[in-house]
Amino acid sequence: MTENTSGSSAADQPTQAIEGLDTRTKAQPGLNATATHHENAEPAPTNAGRVFARVDEERWGYDPAEVDDFLQRVDAVLATTAGDPRSAPGVGSRQVRERVFDRVQGGYDPAPVDVRLDELEDELADRERDAFIHEHGPERWEEHLELLGQTLLGRLNRPHGERFRQPSQRKQLGYSVADVDVLCDRITEHFRSDEALDPTLVRKAVFRQAQGQRCYEEQQVDAFLDRVVELILALR
Q: Which residues lie in Polar residues bias regions (predicted)?
């Protein structure tokens, strides 16, 4: 998603939200429809046998062993849970979104692997939404989306330069405040309008590095953008 590959920390609780955010999904299945969807679903495509291109031997790519192992775990989820990810804890849309692979020379080309991970995240997010609605009902789902939207949009409403923490050490590098604020403004514009937001805008965001008062703490920004992608997928 960004140049940072460190873990994510929880974002602080914001104080205000944009009015009028419509958290209704485009097609909200009912309880019976959700159950029927799972019962009649075609077998999920697997990643077994998928061949990814490798970079040249002198270049660095994703560790093939790590990628293959992780995709096999996702295959197991798609093949055995019948659309209910609760029976396979530890592998879900968030784990796919946050997965980071070691780099080795001559490894897998990151671009096609990232494309496949995005596809899997989308599929798992859809299944998780259906499973939640099937268990708790559409009203609880709407409440969940409303709370998540208020949390995210509250932070977006903060003034430029104040949306995220700055590194505790003056010389520590972080994400450029200007770059992050530009992306946040674009996200805000989409949330204010009826236009659907493409998760690629957030997933592929890259920020310049900066120091001191000109940068935001990377982990907090990454954690926030992860939640933005979660909301985008939930609203589809």
A: 1-16
